[in-house]
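Z., the sequence and structure:
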Amino acid sequence: MMQINGDSACNKHSLINVMHRFIAAANNMDETIMVPNLLRDVPLEEQVRSELEANNNQTPCPNKQRDMYEHYLLLKSIKNDMEWGLLKREMSSGASFLEMAVKQEEQQPVRGELPLEDNADLEHEFHFHLRGLFGVLSKLTVQADHLTNRYKREIGGGNFMR
């Protein structure tokens, strides 16, 4: 078995630490938001309504979530994918996790040794994606915290009541 060095887990810049922070923020969000349906039709930001009016009622970014509820579901989905892996989505067929992993590995073409240039590209690609993963996880953590705090603020003020 591989052992994790205690120093790397404590390093605030480690991938494991960034992942733990996001999962903790998402868990806090999930525990705080007791009635997620209250988030429906609530814009992500207060100024979204004024942007809609300025753009003739067309959403400025059509690929983004339309309300806090969709954003909440997105954050929960990402957390679940991180905790359970992407294969969980495919497991609706009833196959076990091990069976799905074996099936996926069997479908991948067998490759020989990579040339030395490809190894250098792999290292560059790894670092590129690692930086991206750090950035995305940091942003998702901030968004989960923001959603939690806004829910607390809005519920405390009764602004979700219609």
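The chain has seven helices and no strands. The first helix runs from residue 6 to 10.

Let me know what you think.
H.
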